[in-house]
């Protein structure tokens, strides 16, 4: 059984490729829910969950995003589903979202909360040097969304669904579009990346290529 699982995992990573053009087949809702649950249940730094995942089905908004997203032209037209990965802004150690992340995990006594928040304060001020830098705080939460992004793509591939992560777009303009349509409150969150999902129209022209394993993975004893 374990060997079957190992083989399935390896086959999965061989199957997965960045798909630009999809066919017209729709992903069943139960499969989409499984992919989205992979994002929802993903780990995040200090358990913050400073993210949201929006399944974008509104054709007007998609058309507007297409105008400013050079890296998503064909995906916006052909993908079965299109997901926006949003990241929280200003997730400081003393923010309400940081406090609520502790409460969700069962830490409710004020003394215990303050002790944990002091640890986060030291982390943000001393280690990351980002507590008073709004851009650095956003980058911190945006990086965490990539954990969820990877999990969604992996889970999609395991059930035969293709995907493509997308960063090729004008971030300011996409944020403006999302704010205009009430999808985000721009002072609270912003776009981190996008993900298209569906079934490939054709197999890739070129075989999967990677750097030599020994260049990428090393041991230091």
TrEMBL record:
A single Gene Ontology MF term assigned here is: oxidoreductase activity, acting on other nitrogenous compounds as donors, with NAD or NADP as acceptor
Recorded hits in SUPFAM superfamilies, A to Z, give: FMN-dependent nitroreductase-like
UniProt keywords (A-Z) are:
Flavoprotein, FMN, NAD, NADP, Oxidoreductase
Family, according to the entry, reads as follows: Belongs to the nitroreductase family.
Q: Which CDD domains match?
A: NfsB-like (cd02149)
Name the record gives this protein: Nitroreductase family protein
Pfam families, alphabetized: Nitroreductase (PF00881)
């Amino acid at each position: 059984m374990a060997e079957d699982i190992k083989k399935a995992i390896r086959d999965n990573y061989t199957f997965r490729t960045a798909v630009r053009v999809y066919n017209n087949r729709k992903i069943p809702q139960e499969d989409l829910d499984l992919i989205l649950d992979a994002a929802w249940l993903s780990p995040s730094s200090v358990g913050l969950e400073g993210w949201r995942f929006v399944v974008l089905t509104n054709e007007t908004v998609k058309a507007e995003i297409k105008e400013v997203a050079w890296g998503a032209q064909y995906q916006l037209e052909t993908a079965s589903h299109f997901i926006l990965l949003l990241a929280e802004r200003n997730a400081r150690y003393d923010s309400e979202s940081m406090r609520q992340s502790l409460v969700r995990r069962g830490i409710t006594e004020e003394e215990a909360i303050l002790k944990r928040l002091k640890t986060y304060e030291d982390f943000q001020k001393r280690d990351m040097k980002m507590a008073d830098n709004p851009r650095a705080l956003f980058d911190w939460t945006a990086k965490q969304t990539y954990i969820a992004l990877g999990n969604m793509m992996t889970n999609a591939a395991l059930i035969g669904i293709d995907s493509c992560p997308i960063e090729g777009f004008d971030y300011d303009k996409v944020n403006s579009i999302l704010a205009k349509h009430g999808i985000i409150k721009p002072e609270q969150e912003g776009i981190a990346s996008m993900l298209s999902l569906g079934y490939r129209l054709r197999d890739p022209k070129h075989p999967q290529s990677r750097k030599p394993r020994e260049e990428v993975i090393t041991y230091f004893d």
